[in-house]
User: Which sequence fits this backbone?
């Protein structure tokens, strides 16, 4: 019971009461493992992430996106990897890409398209959001680098990973596919209606860290 902690923040004012009933049932059964709070207002995805991180107490942190799925052993493998490699600050992995919601890891046909992420380097992470949708990282990253910038609507995770990388944090790629990424047409980062402001965010972040990259070469 002391191995895993779930922090669940419900930021949906019109949330499903049945969903909350289910969560509360499990929170009552596992009070030492599940922290649940319903927010009065939705402060935005990264503000919710920051609140959850500050409410947590674990040595390792990961985010659980409602759109995505993981291997049943993914969290255990990532945590053991970080325990074994003390020089590693964050572990990430490839994920299968699906176009249907709620596809479990075990249901994915291995011929499905997948993200083939590069091995970590400052140059690689500058080309794109290298950890992507299901990394696990040490809590110390926030002690050393702050939190996700709540001014960004879509790319604050990329900004934070870049901030960590350019502060000499080390990310390592796990050698197995552990996740499933649902390419949600209505998602914040994948909805075409958001592309204009999303590109502006990404360009701003890219220019900032490209300047640092050139200075450090």
Assistant:
């Amino acid at each position: 019971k002391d191995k895993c902690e779930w922090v669940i923040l419900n930021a949906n004012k019109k949330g499903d009461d049945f969903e909350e009933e289910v969560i509360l049932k499990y929170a009552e059964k596992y009070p030492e493992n599940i922290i649940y709070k319903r927010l009065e207002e939705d402060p935005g995805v990264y503000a919710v992430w920051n609140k959850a991180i500050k409410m947590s107490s674990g040595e390792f942190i990961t985010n659980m996106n409602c759109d995505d799925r993981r291997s049943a052993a993914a969290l255990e493998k990532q945590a053991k990897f970080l325990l074994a490699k003390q020089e590693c600050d964050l572990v990430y992995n490839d994920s299968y890409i699906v176009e249907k919601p709620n596809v479990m890891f075990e249901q994915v046909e291995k011929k499905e398209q997948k993200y083939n992420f590069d091995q970590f380097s400052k140059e690689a992470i500058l080309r794109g959001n290298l950890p992507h949708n299901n990394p696990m990282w040490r809590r110390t990253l926030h002690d050393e680098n702050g939190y996700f910038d709540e001014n960004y609507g879509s790319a604050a995770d990329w900004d934070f990973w870049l901030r960590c990388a350019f502060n000499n944090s080390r990310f390592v790629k796990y050698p197995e596919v552990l996740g499933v990424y649902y390419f949600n047409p209505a998602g914040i980062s994948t909805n075409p209606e958001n592309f204009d402001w999303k590109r502006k965010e990404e360009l701003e972040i890219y220019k900032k860290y490209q300047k640092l990259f050139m200075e450090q070469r």
The two ends are 47 Å apart (CA to CA). The first strand starts at residue 6 and ends at 10.
